[in-house]
Amino acid sequence: MPHARTAPPIRRATRADVNALLALEESTFDSDRISRAQWRRHIDSPTATVLVHGAPGTIDAAAVVFYRRNSRNARLYSLAVHAHTRGSGLGGALLAAVEADALAHGRTMLQLEVNTANTAAIALYERRGYARRARLARFYEDGSDAWRYAKGLTTVTP
Length: 158
Fold this sequence. Notes:
The protein is an alpha+beta fold. It has a single domain, classed as Gcn5-related N-acetyltransferase (GNAT) (Aminopeptidase). It is about 30% helix and about 30% strand. The protein has a seven-stranded mixed β-sheet, sandwiched between helices. Strand 4 (about 75-80), helix 3 and strand 5 (about 110-115) form a beta-alpha-beta unit. The longest helix is centred in the middle third of the chain and has 15 residues, at about 90-105. The radius of gyration is 15 Å and the shape is globular. About 30% of the residues are buried.
């Protein structure tokens, strides 16, 4: 009987992933990109988690979450899914992994910002129970606005 192929799990990024993370960032975002030095800093930081999906060198999704000291809130700084895997449920799986990581860090609230024009991401966050809190004018490097969303964390639902 042939073995079923299993998808690689969502895992913590390592420095070996930096080139693939840069490529994902380049293919996903037009501005506000995370630099090589920032990726390294985030991967090594005790107040950040970088989660990825894919084997080293072929990352197809990534998320960065920040943890401020003495705060019960976590901040989803970035969530990127490569175009060839969009619509596969990978964004939701990665978001669930971020929520689980935030809970493991003792956080009770996850906040994020999303471009007001990013309807697919907005739909994902709203389906997952995030509430729109504020409009942030000229939030991004290119001058576009963002919505701030937040969700209280008690358990993670896939």
